[in-house]
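[agent] plan:
  1. take the single chain provided in the ticket
  2. run structure prediction with default settings
  3. attach structure tokens to the ticket
  4. add a short note for the reviewer (M.T.)
[agent] executing step 1
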Amino acid sequence: MRVVVGLSGGVDSSVAAYLLQKQGHEVIGLFMRNWHDESVIIDNACPWIDDANDAVLVAEHLGIPFQVLDLSDAYRERIVNYMFDEYAAGRTPNPDILCNREIKFDLFLDAAKSIGAEAVATGHYCQKDTVNTPKGETHRLIAGADPNKDQSYFLCQLNQDQLEQALFPIGHMLKPDVRALAEEIGLPTAQKKDSQGLCFIGKVRLPEFLQQQLEVKPGDIIEIEESHPMFAERQVLSADSPKMDAHAYAFSPDQGQVVGRHQGAHFFTIGQRKGLQVGGKADPLFVLAKDVVTNHLYVGQSAEHPGLKRKALFMQEDEVHWIREDLAMEVDSRQSNWSFRFRYRQPLQKGSITRSVDGYYIEFDLPQAGIAAGQFAAWYDGEECIGSGVISD
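[agent] step 2 finished; step 3 output follows
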């Protein structure tokens, strides 16, 4: 089978290409160039030119054809502009999830098929299998075998067509074993550090990156005391109606005191600790909420502040996606056997999901800190990712 591997210049995709070659597939390496502007990258942490050179060395080492595919225009349109729009609206996007849905398993897949490929492969730490259901053959997205590297969350927006044509050759392996195999076969990327930061861009100075399109807009940082009576009131009301806790607190300036200034509420995210530049507090300050209309940033002391925690979240009907279409919920139904996460590497959380006429509610068994609008919540049946949705507010 002809398989195109997304060679990123890292050890994971390098080993993925080797394993496919060893299995007898006709392997082609394809490097995606999706970003050109290095002005916002920190210390050249992930310059595309170095990655491309490493990908070339891997392809030469394995003796496979290699090409470079420039998708930078589409990446800016579909991913970067999406980021700017989300931050401007006061939401916290996850571009890596959209990059997988819109770039790696859409445009990249189309490019692979145009040169006769039957499948594409990546170095993601996740697994796939196929089962028969009453609705026919169904592909399942399974967590990677390495619990420290599982990347199924980043693929939670893939659909059945995309999964059908996707291969994850290293999903059954542990990271140390991947590196050991790379060393054994002499891959030039064997000891290369894992990339960090935004998909295809690298580690960036986020405020500077966002300032390419979002203006600096100074405003007040307002501290909300954890003893404020609104928290006790909501706790009582939420006990009778848990769905009430699915929506963020609506703070107002008169509920706290000004403790500093910021350069724009849209540059921050819920739960953020660094970058506030407010000293003299007994405990660290965390962002509780932001209002991009009034440009107020609300903060509270300590990771245990009640304003950080909620027991539920809400997702609009049209922003929910089912990988397992055969398991999609009916209106007025409830599922209590699945687990949930809304951040990469977050341990799966117990809870339940309910579909109502107005959308979907996830209610957690234990309060969760740092739930932010724009993030993706994903749900799992054991190790299998079933679906995901965008957190509304």
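[agent] step 4 note for reviewer: The first strand starts at residue 2 and ends at 6.
[agent] ticket updated
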